[in-house]
Design brief:
The chain is of the alpha/beta class. The protein has helices at 33-51, 73-86, 104-116, 125-133, 160-163, and strands at residues 10-16, 21-27, 57-62, 89-94, 142-148, 168-171, 177-181.
Amino acid sequence: MSSSLVPRAYPYGVYDLERNTGFVNVGTDHDTGAFAVASIRGWWRHEGRCLYPEAKDVLITADGGGSNGSRLRLWKLELQKLVDETGLSISVCHFPPGTSKWNKIEHRLFSFISSNWRGEPLRDYETIVKLISRTATAKGLKLTCRLDRRRYPTGRKVTDEEMTHVNLERHKSPTIIITNLIPLFIYGP
């Protein structure tokens, strides 16, 4: 969705399997690890902590590539900051390459968003947000969508020193990479 007249949009979604609800953060700058975590943070602040006030752990399933790839240092560093801010333990299960079709978000969220805006010209961000927000299904899917105009510069290098502050525990699994981050409470505002 890019031309000289229509700026790029980067939808990042959070799908709640239990409630059949989705939260989509539409970015306007770049799809980076910082943007991906900002999207998860947005869901937690606006919905997650109200829906799950007793939560101590969050499980995220993610594709193996893109802004939330299992090897990306910025993704891990930003997730650690979120863990430290919230006190949550976050586990991430990355699907192996070529298997994103197994990720429920593809079938239960983004496929319906794509169907909902089929044939509609996506001329501006407001149209995109409106069409995503209006996505619903017969089985009760409901969506919240917000526009994120913050800057997420590309090329951010995470140093070895910064990585020492990531409290990462890798689980052994033959098919998916599971990473667990637990609070360190060392990052300030």
